[in-house]
Amino acid sequence: MKSLGTLLVSALMSQALAFSSIKPTISKATLDSSSLFSTPQNEFEPESSSTSSTSLSRRSALSKSAQALATLLVADTVSSSPAFADISYPFTSPKTILITGSNSGIGFDAAERMAKQGHTIILACRSFFKANTAATQISEKLNDPSLKLIPKECDLANLKSVQKLIDDLVADNIKLDALCLNAGIARNTAAKDVARTEQGFELTIGTNHLGHFYLTNQILNNSLLKDGGNIVVTASGVHDPDSPGGAQGSKATLGSLQGLEKAVADGTGQFDMVDGNEFDPDKSYKDSKLCNVFFMRELQKRLDESGKGIKAVAFNPGLIVGTGLFRDQNPIFTRIFDFAATDLLKVGENTHWGGGALEYLTLDSNAIGKGGLYYTSPPGSSKYGDAAFGNQFTITDVSKEAMDSAKGKRLWELSEKLVGL
Ligand SMILES: NC(=O)c1ccc[n+]([C@@H]2O[C@H](COP(=O)([O-])OP(=O)(O)OC[C@H]3O[C@@H](n4cnc5c(N)ncnc54)[C@H](OP(=O)(O)O)[C@@H]3O)[C@@H](O)[C@H]2O)c1
Questions:
Q1: How far from 326 is each of 18, 124, 139, 229, CA to CA, in Å?
Q2: Given ligand 1 and candidates 323, 326, 350, 382, which is best to mutate, with the most ligand atoms within 8 Å of its CB?
Q3: Which ligand 1 atom lies nearest to the CA of residue 348?
Q4: Which of 170, 193, 270, 407 has its CA 20 to 30 A from that of 111?
Q5: Ligand 1 atom closest to 103 (CA)
Q6: Nearest CA to 206 among 125, 98, 284, 278?
Q7: pLDDT digit string (tens) for 380-399?
Q8: Residue span of the signal peptide, if any (predicted)?
Q9: Domain count, the chain
């Protein structure tokens, strides 16, 4: 069994090797959780981001690691103090913005940023208690009695809870200017059991994709999003197996959607993996992020047909080990990796950066009004602070698979059947 130290060096090396071949301006360079916590067999073995997974010997790996680390430590991507000078996005009237998963991480930070500017934030969280606690924390931190924070329950792993939110919004006559589909879950990559949502869907796809799919459709079906409004999806670079993060561990692919096809055909609605294969938690997370990108692109097509001027985009916030996304992974390793990736190598981003990315796509006049797009930035871009948004953090290609419009359409149709729309 490998010691923790060996694992850390190997993992860092693996990441560093991926980074060392990246020029700071390459826009498809992305990383996130799944690359760090893959299954023990392949987890810490260095892997080329563009070729198949040939393992290096430890000696040559360590030598390459040292080179990569040296490169990183002198590279332009390294900075000791990220500069954040929160941007004020001008607006004529305050907006009403719903954010899923806003009690933690990126969503919480974005909620705080946008509430601070005078917008009404609907904190849509797993439970009312969590939403209310988040609202209280933001109020106390900003110490501003004029803040408009509305806590709501929205458990994406239970479509009845999502429907209750819809009913509440209708009853309260709330009209949204923006919808941020941000919540997400990543299970321990060593998990063997298939956890399920209330409706029996595999938990990761059920939460990250199908819960948001149902929420968005019901918001649109009930005209709860204003014409000209915008939808922002927190996706990930790991949706793309050709990205450095997506190339580590299991690779995202929906195959021919056999798992969903079967679940719909047999009427059970139960699937373990979208592609019909055996359960793989690492892949399931990456697949869910691929679903997010497929969903955003197909959604935009349908929105264009509706003529309501609503725009949908997706983004990759980069590697942010400090959020709650890693809570089911080994806590010691997560803490060490957070320090190494964020503080030492400066290839990770921080939570405030992630919240800023979500805020930028929700409020910036250069970003809103454009749809069907995917945004990302090179690793370590949070060193530029908020100035990176619209600069390093900008429009990028989605993965080859995500460009398959026919698959996106079929995923939509199957998702409709699964959630009962
Ligand atoms: N951190 C990264 O490196 C990274 C990289 C790329 C993409 N992302 C994406 O960024 C998004 C935000 O994640 P984060 O990094 O900020 O992690 P986080 O701190 O764990 O936030 C995730 C949020 O999603 C919520 N959530 C999970 N399951 C839910 C459910 N069934 N119903 C309602 N809410 C649920 C969580 O609520 P609870 O607290 O109640 O669980 C939490 O508020 C996710 O979509 C993630 O995939 C993150």
A1: 21, 21, 26, 32
A2: 323
A3: 3
A4: 170
A5: 43
A6: 284
A7: 999 999 999 999 999 999 99
A8: 1-18
A9: 1
